[in-house]
């Protein structure tokens, strides 16, 4: 094994990827497996560099002392009197004015060609955006002939411009003024992302190995405890429910119905309907394709449920066997998690998740070892994220509504049940309608697919998020129309904040040069992306979380104030989003460096304005 050359904390000179320029960096860590150094630039950017891309500072200081007095062509002690091959004859030598005119002409050519590249970069995303809205896949092919010819023609001139800017004779004061003016301008230039090699996960979340081990047992226990509490006449926290017999928790027929539901959603996912889009670039620069047809799957599911009700199928069967369905989903998610971890052991290094590659079995099993596990074109994580659990949540709510009418002999559902079903139906339909937005979330771009997401998508979402509807079946609550109106207004306010904030962010990420976004200001970063400092994202750092929490409160209010159990969702959701916000802060600080610190100064509040 080769020995390590540079130590942690040592200040060295690191080559910027894709260029011949070296900058002062600090070594932060070294990976013994990939033999890569993680270095940090002065602007906060962290990259993984090979050893031959790093040099000591002393070598650069030595070169500078040699070349301070003369150019490389004048270092020899004896100068040849003969003409060099590139030197023109005396009769054809240019005058000083001709030389200056030649330089000015060349500089003008460089500026014109750079402007052509800028126009090409700015207008190409809008063309892809048009194709995307027309149902066509986004064109991001890197072998475009016109682009290759243009880049080959402009490459020498751009190299000359880069060197001229690096060794410019302008004063530092002028450069500083130029940078300040640039940062205030509304100019956004897309920069090609730098390819990184995923390294070992060093900072463990969720309490590390011990915390994840406990969560594997605590999460299922919490679900079963909540469902048993809802079945009691007095669902107080101090009134612990009796444990049911083990044989009553399992039924083969129920497990078969769950498998049928999962398979039906998989068939809907594979249907060749809906547009195909590309996700964000992976570590190796490759982009995966995703078919956006979640809303079509919801329509087909609604048609199938309508057909079952037409043929007198008793949908409240879900209510009668609710605990058994939860156990079936938990067993299936555990088996799926084991399969995902076993297959991840053979996955290439570049396909592993940056957040689940610690080398510890329990932690990687929980967090997810592989980032995008696929069977052919079937993306397991993307499918489970929205389809079986989220659509199943709506079906469970409908089953609870029908069960309430049957148990209490009602001709129409109660007003509380109607509000809960309507609010949560709007939330699910919105998520499926804006399915493409999920491709930029942390679940897709950072977290692997392991027990955490498998259990969360298939068990926690459908069986905990439907807790209010399940509670109202056994504990009916009567509310007046004025109170119902106030709760509806509160939910609409939360939904407006949630949807407008997400739309603002997604539109800016998709096409920052869109004229419709001309009123938005942002802070440019070293990655080529911008951090919005106006609109909702200038109000708080996570306005979408604020809207989510307001909606969660509106979902619980129709259940009254007799017990705290139906408010478990809003309490849990606040804890979840605060924890996720802390994860976002950590990742963004590492990714954007000083630009993120500037953003935090401009937008001091995280979720709740003037509070947190």
From TrEMBL:
Keywords carried by this UniProt record: Cholesterol biosynthesis, Cholesterol metabolism, Cytoplasm, DNA-binding, Endoplasmic reticulum, Lipid biosynthesis, Lipid metabolism, Membrane, Nucleus, Oxidoreductase, Phosphoprotein, Receptor, Steroid biosynthesis, Steroid metabolism, Sterol biosynthesis, Sterol metabolism, Transmembrane, Transmembrane helix
Main location class: cytoplasm
GO molecular function terms attached to this record: Delta14-sterol reductase activity; DNA binding
Catalyses which reaction(s): 5alpha-cholest-8,14-dien-3beta-ol + NADPH + H(+) = 5alpha-cholest-8-en-3beta-ol + NADP(+); 4,4-dimethyl-5alpha-cholesta-8,24-dien-3beta-ol + NADP(+) = 4,4-dimethyl-5alpha-cholesta-8,14,24-trien-3beta-ol + NADPH + H(+); 4,4-dimethyl-8,14-cholestadien-3beta-ol + NADPH + H(+) = 4,4-dimethyl-5alpha-cholest-8-en-3beta-ol + NADP(+)
Cell compartments where the protein resides: Cytoplasm; Endoplasmic reticulum membrane; Nucleus inner membrane
UniProt entry tagged with the keyword Oxidoreductase: yes
Family matches, as InterPro entries: ERG24_DHCR-like, Lamin-B_rcpt_of_tudor, Sterol_reductase_CS, Tudor
Feature: compositional bias, Basic residues: 76-95
Transmembrane regions listed in the UniProt entry: 210-228, 248-271, 292-311, 323-342, 453-473, 479-498, 519-540, 560-579
Residue stretches of biased makeup (Low complexity): 66-75
Membrane topology: Multi-pass membrane protein
Family named by the database record: Belongs to the ERG4/ERG24 family.
PANTHER family, per the entry: DELTA(14)-STEROL REDUCTASE (PTHR21257), DELTA(14)-STEROL REDUCTASE LBR (PTHR21257:SF55)
Name used for this protein in its record: Delta(14)-sterol reductase LBR
Species this chain originates from: Erythrocercus mccallii
């Amino acid at each position: 094994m080769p020995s390590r050359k540079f130590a942690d904390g040592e200040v060295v000179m690191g080559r910027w990827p894709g260029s011949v320029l070296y900058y002062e960096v600090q070594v932060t860590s070294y990976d013994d497996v990939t033999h890569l150094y993680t270095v940090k630039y002065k602007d906060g950017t962290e990259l993984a560099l090979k050893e031959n891309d790093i040099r000591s500072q002393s070598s650069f200081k030595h070169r500078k002392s040699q070349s301070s007095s003369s150019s490389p062509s004048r270092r020899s002690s004896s100068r040849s009197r003969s003409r060099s091959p590139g030197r023109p004859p005396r009769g054809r030598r240019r005058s000083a004015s001709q030389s200056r005119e030649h330089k000015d002409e060349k500089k003008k050519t460089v500026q014109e060609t750079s402007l052509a590249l800028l126009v090409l970069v700015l207008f190409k995303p809008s063309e892809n955006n048009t194709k995307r809205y027309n149902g066509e896949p986004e064109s991001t092919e890197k072998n475009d002939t016109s682009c290759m010819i243009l880049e080959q023609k402009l490459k020498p001139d751009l190299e000359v411009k880069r060197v001229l800017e690096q060794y410019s004779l302008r004063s530092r004061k002028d450069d500083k003024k130029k940078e300040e003016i640039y940062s205030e301008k509304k100019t956004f230039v897309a920069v090609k992302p730098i390819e990184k090699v995923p390294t070992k996960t060093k900072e463990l979340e969720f309490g590390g190995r011990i915390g994840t081990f406990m969560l594997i047992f605590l999460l299922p226990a919490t679900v079963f405890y909540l469902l048993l509490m809802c079945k009691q006449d007095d669902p107080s926290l101090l009134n612990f429910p009796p444990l049911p017999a083990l044989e009553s928790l399992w039924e083969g027929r129920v497990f078969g119905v769950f498998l049928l539901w999962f398979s039906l959603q998989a068939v809907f996912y594979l249907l060749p309907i809906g547009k195909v889009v590309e996700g964000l670039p992976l570590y190796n620069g490759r982009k995966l394709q995703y078919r956006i047809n979640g809303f079509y799957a919801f329509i087909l599911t609604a048609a199938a449920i309508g057909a079952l009700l037409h043929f007198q199928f008793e949908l409240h069967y879900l209510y009668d066997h609710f605990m058994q369905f939860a156990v079936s989903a938990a067993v299936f998610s555990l088996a799926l998690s084991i399969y995902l971890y076993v297959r991840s052991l053979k996955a290439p290094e570049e396909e592993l998740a940056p957040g689940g590659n610690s080398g510890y079995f329990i932690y990687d099993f929980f967090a997810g070892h592989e980032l995008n596990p696929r069977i052919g074109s079937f993306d397991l994580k993307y499918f489970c994220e929205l389809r079986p659990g989220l659509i199943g949540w709506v079906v469970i709510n409908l089953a609870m509504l029908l069960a309430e009418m049957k148990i209490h002999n009602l001709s129409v559902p109660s007003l509380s049940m109607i509000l809960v079903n309507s609010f949560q139906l709007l939330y699910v339909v919105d998520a499926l309608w804006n399915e493409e937005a999920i491709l930029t979330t942390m679940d897709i771009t950072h977290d692997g697919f392991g027990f955490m997401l498998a259990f969360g998508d298939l068990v926690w979402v459908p069986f905990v998020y439907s807790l209010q509807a399940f509670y109202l079946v056994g504990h009916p609550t009567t509310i007046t129309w004025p109170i119902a109106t106030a709760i509806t207004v509160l939910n609409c306010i939360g939904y407006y904040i949630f949807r407008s904030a997400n739309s603002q962010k997604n539109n800016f990420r998709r096409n920052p040069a869109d004229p419709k976004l001309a009123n938005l200001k942002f802070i440019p970063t070293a990655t080529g992306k911008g951090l919005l400092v106006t609109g909702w994202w200038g109000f708080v750092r996570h306005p979408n979380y604020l809207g989510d929490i307001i909606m969660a409160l509106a979902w619980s209010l129709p259940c009254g104030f007799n017990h705290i159990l139906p408010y478990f969702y809003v309490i849990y959701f606040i804890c979840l989003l605060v924890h996720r916000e802390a994860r976002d802060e950590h990742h963004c600080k590492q990714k954007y460096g000083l630009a993120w610190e500037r953003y935090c100064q401009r937008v001091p509040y995280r979720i709740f304005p003037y509070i947190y």
